[in-house]
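Revision sheet: structure tokens.
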Amino acid sequence: FKEVNDSLGHLLGDELLVQVAGRLRSTLHPDEELARLGGDEFALVIPAATLEQAEQAAVRLLDALTEPFHVEGLALHVDASVGVAVSPRHATDTTGLLRCADIAMYRAKYLRGRSAVYDAADDDPARQRLQTVEELRTALARDQLVLHYQPQASLPDGQISAVEALVRWCHPETGLRYPDTFLPLVEEAGLMAALTDRVLELALDQILTWQADGLPVLPVAINLSASSTVDTALPDRIAGALAVRDLPGNVLVLEITEQFLMADRARAHAVLTQLRQLGITISIDDFGTGYSSLAYLRDLPVDELKLDRAFIAPLADDARAANLVRSTVDLAHALGLRMVAEGVEDQTTWNELARYGCDHIQGYHLARPMPGPALTHWFQQRQPGGPHIPTQHPSRTPSSAGRTN
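Predicted:
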């Protein structure tokens, strides 16, 4: 539903909700009552229901959503997750019953099912989830998020060409937390736009700090989630953040995944085109791990492919893996794209990638992610004059849907 609001606007989102409510209402028995709790959440109250009756009602509600809804000429398919709780088995008052149903609903979402019945075993994890969401809101408000940076090097000369910004959460009690422990919850709680904005601010401010320290401007790569990339206001927010700091768009590389591109190619084209008009480089992260279609490489304005570490790790010992990497590098160059290999952990792999013509590498063999000040020191120790930054990227032909930067 958030995607509908972001793509079509809240007025059409409300229109969809009205249609959904009408569809759900059409399934009701005379003694049942339907209410909208807020956002896209509804509750169905069935007086004196048994567990079996409640589960049957859940099926009715879900079946009612099977056919598409029509809004402004668009056919929209929606689905739902349903949590079931009954009294007195699960709770004896309204508040308790709603809480149990809510916990069951999130269990259904987590299990990627359509409905689930409340289980007391889910109570503690649910409380922990709610507590963590509140802590994440606090983290965003109190600047508990920090960025660590991992450098990339160009091949074959090994000069530093860019850095990737990786978010960390400095939790006041449990210490430094890595993104896989909290980003899924950020997405679920609808906080991804706020987190993306904060990461962008931190990265751009770090660029200004490096400038003040006498270092050349390093392009900084930032990962975007699927929800961020369908946020139609994102290009304007990024443009504003760059303008406030008097920075050009080419200081940013935005990394997106194949799954987003395949989900809605038309919208991807519109969003990416706006971003590239700002001078921002677009990189396809984890290339080769999704359900790839080479057509999007032809049609969409992208600049760079980032080959996943799963292809790089066996390169030295597996001839088929080596041939796959070599052919992927050739494909990227044939399409006028740069190739970045991540997960490089030894000199042998570095040498092989250079031999294949890979443009840039990233991995522990070069450096682990580190805070901004530590990376400044690393630069200064590695090269007294600072990292060499190419004045332009390797020559390439523009993609059919894009332009050269």
